[in-house]
Design goal:
The complex is a heterodimer of chains A (about 300) and B (about 300). Chain A is an all-alpha fold and about 300 residues long. Chain A is built from 15 helices and no strands. Chain A has one domain: MetI-like fold, CATH 1.10.3720. Chain A has helices at about 1-10, 10-35, 50, 60-65, 70-100, 105-115, 120-135, 140-145, 160-185, 190-200, 205-230, 235-240, 250, 255-265, 270-295. In chain A, helix 7 (about 120-135) packs parallel to helix 12 (about 235-240) and helix 11 crosses helix 15 (about 270-295). With about 300 residues, chain B is an all-alpha fold. Chain B folds into two domains: about 1-70 and about 245-295, no CATH class; about 70-220, MetI-like fold (Orthogonal Bundle). Chain B is built from 14 helices and no strands. The radius of gyration of chain B is 25 Å and the shape is globular. Classes of the chains: A mainly alpha (about 300), B mainly alpha (about 300). Chains A and B meet through helix 1, helix 2, helix 5, helix 6 and helix 7 of A and helix 1, helix 2, helix 4, helix 5 and helix 6 of B. Chain A: It holds the Pfam family BPD_transp_1. Chain A: One of its GO terms (biological process) is transmembrane transport. Chain A: It comes from Cohnella nanjingensis. Chain A: InterPro entries: ABC_transporter_permease (IPR051393), MetI-like (IPR000515), MetI-like_sf (IPR035906).
Amino acid sequence: MSGLFREIRKNKVLVLMILPALLFFVLFSYAPMVGVYFAFTNFSFDGGLFKSPFVGMDNFKFLFESGTLWNLTKNTILYNIAFILIGNVLQVMSAVFLSELPGRWFKKTSQSIMFLPFFVSFVLVGAFVFNLFSTNNGLVNTLLEQLGMQPYDFYMHTAPWKYIIVFFSVWKGLGYGTVIYLAAIMSISDEYHEAAKIDGANIFQRIRFITIPMLVPTFILLILLSLGGILKGQFDLFYQIIGNNGMLFDSTDVIDTYVFRALAVNFDIGMGTAAGLYQSFFGLALVLTVNYIIRRTRDDYALF
Amino acid sequence: MKIKTEKSTVAFNVLGFAVMTLLTLACLLPFWVIVSGSFTSELEIIEDGFKLWPDRLSVEAYQAAFSNPAQIFRAYEVTIALTVAGTVIGLFVTSMAGFVLSRKDFKLRNGLAFFIYFTTLFSGGLIPWYIMIVKYLGWKDSYLSLLVPSLLGAFNIILMKNFMRSIPESIPESAKIDGAGEFRIYWRLILPLSTPGLATIGLFMALSYWNDWFHANLFITSEDKYPLQFLLYKILASAAVLKTNVAANLSADMKPPAETLKMAASVIVTGPIVFLYPFVQRYFVKGLTIGAVKG
């Protein structure tokens, strides 16, 4: 302990320089961790941390027994498997095409356009959804009517929203992932392709037997990394597309949106905190598992 | 043999151009429908709905939006101020922390790095974080709630640390021998050498401030504090009506723009990003590939 103080005194300036960052994480990460205690209370805002009645595991029990937790977990996992697999496959595909196709202008333009969605806010996704699917004026219904078909009330059916959510998730990340895979392709030595060409391999064979195998490590690594993070950062996408439309919750509610509604709509602080705590532990377990797997296979890419 | 090879290449190119054109169009389509919707007349939308191509171009939605632009300009002000302040302060604090953690002669660095990194592994969740900000810091409806909670990210600090570690250690060492203090070494030597890293991280920070609507949704209640994206969100949800001076001088057969106004507002809010995009894109690409190699 005295060694610690000596170290601090010796590096006073360095400690002062990192202090603002430490203070930030104390305020916005560590102090709120104390608040997971709310998960075990029937929280009232006036009572705050110390005077809300303690209810033990009741909130968790309710979440578990009502099936809420199972439904949220199932949705979260299934959606993310779809996002990650479809997203990565399309990203690899467009990176391979971009690396092999002729025509600089075409490639530059399409890469730029595919990267554009990454830069716009998710609120704009809400605007797209409004324009395309609104019941009275939506573009999709306009087109259906022009084809002589009945308009479709999207907001009364749960089925199409799964695909809409997956579409916009893939849409937002396509350019980003393509850039990463393109960088991986560029780092493959030209010699392999030259040698294969001399041996008479055509372009499909070269992609099948050189590019794809060389991309597999990156592919697996990126999938594992995204698997580790599937329990956070989904809120914008789901909330901008579905909002508070209760009709659609069964198939579109994920943990993030449930916690948000508990806070902002239902004011059920205890229950929301419990779901959030479950999310944190589940996320931690996932990251540790993923890190363990990466460490076993490609040590240099392990997170810690 | 030669002809055979060419045939497969032709097939590949045809397939490639087709697939890439399709993907590109799919990425472009949502933008297109917004722009085309914003140039349609309200009457056409009420009668037929949104179309891919309007029968008659109309700028009435933009006229309406700019008939009383104070609200949009105000939101622009808020967002620009937040983006600039957040990026500058965020970069300063992030780079200082990165500098301290990159100093190999600083014995506490591993412990402190873990202290920061741990926050990405486990959190108390949204609600305790919210209660901290509202109840204990008292930042409900304050600009501070939009600025401070998103200043730092553990990953940015780690990225900065990795970047600064690639600077030869002899530079700070020789400066130290010449009697320069730690802050001076950081400010005069390391920071200028870290410009590429600062640019990339700064752009990511600026982008996330510019696109943020989530914090405003949680914390902001007064309309004059709405940042841009949140104003757009409210307009789209019809919870806030974009104030226009249209109603006063309407002729009888004209509808005041409502649906088209939403589209025009989307264009007005997103336009600057799309225009800036070609200039900043390559910095993002560079930064992404640095990050990708580092894992």
